[in-house]
Specification:
GO molecular function: phosphoglycerate mutase activity
Structural class: alpha/beta
EC number: 5.4.2.11
Pathway: Carbohydrate degradation; glycolysis; pyruvate from D-glyceraldehyde 3-phosphate: step 3/5
Radius of gyration: 16 Å
Distance between the termini: 18 Å
Number of helices: 8
Pfam families: His_Phos_1 (PF00300)
Catalytic activity: (2R)-2-phosphoglycerate = (2R)-3-phosphoglycerate
Helix content: 40-55%
Order of helices and strands: EHHEHEHHHEHHEE
Shape: globular
Length: 201
């Protein structure tokens, strides 16, 4: 059966500066480039038939580096904002520690780590789930059902939404899940298209 590879983009400049990034188009750092290349090396022996990524440069740059390392620069690549990071709205660009001083640790923790609380002008994880999963079902599931191996390079929260769906996790369970930058996660499916195994590369 087909495999689904999920990779969170390499470290971005605003990851490094501890800022809320969301839909801001911030590229990856030198560390992020190295993480992307390591992801490519980890996936080098895998067949990749098609790739999907977001409309944001940090995910696209990471994907391009992975495809270079794996020798898959010729495969189809589909870009869509449905896979973008969760929007943090008015918080985007703000330092997380300074924001906690302004609004209080508890409020910022709630904005970041609750399932359905919306930060000012932004999206909750539930909102992100409700845009990512219909796209996944309509665009990514069909090639998987045809037996194609699919690579998705996206973001912490858009991937959380996918993992929640694939592993049937509760809102509480998914909020505890950390997704490392540049580390491939591989999903294997059985003949009924249920997840049969998950591996970290």
């Amino acid at each position: 059966m087909a495999k689904l590879f999920l990779v969170r983009h390499g470290q971005s400049l605003w990851n490094l500066e501890n800022r809320f990034t969301g839909w801001q188009d911030i590229d990856i750092t030198e560390v992020g480039i190295e993480e992307a290349r390591k992801a490519g090396i980890a996936l080098k022996k895998e067949r990749i038939d098609i790739a999907f990524t977001s409309a944001l440069i940090r995910a696209q740059h990471t994907l391009n580096l992975i495809l270079e390392e794996t020798g898959n620069t010729h495969i189809p690549v589909v870009t869509d904002k449905a896979l973008n990071e969760r929007s943090y709205g008015n918080l985007e660009g703000l330092n997380k520690a300074e924001t906690a001083l302004k609004y209080g640790d508890e409020q910022v923790h709630t904005w970041r780590r609750s399932y359905d609380v919306v930060p000012p002008g932004g999206e909750s994880l539930k909102d992100t789930y409700n845009r990512v999963i219909p796209y996944f079902e309509a665009q990514i599931v069909p090639p998987l059902r045809l037996g194609k191996n699919v690579l998705v390079v996206a973001h912490g929260n858009s991937l959380r939404a996918l993992i929640m769906y694939l592993e049937h996790l509760s809102p509480e369970e998914i909020l505890e899940r950390e997704i490392a930058t540049g580390v491939p996660l591989t999903y294997f499916f059985d003949e009924n298209f249920h997840v049969s195994r998950v591996e970290n590369e």
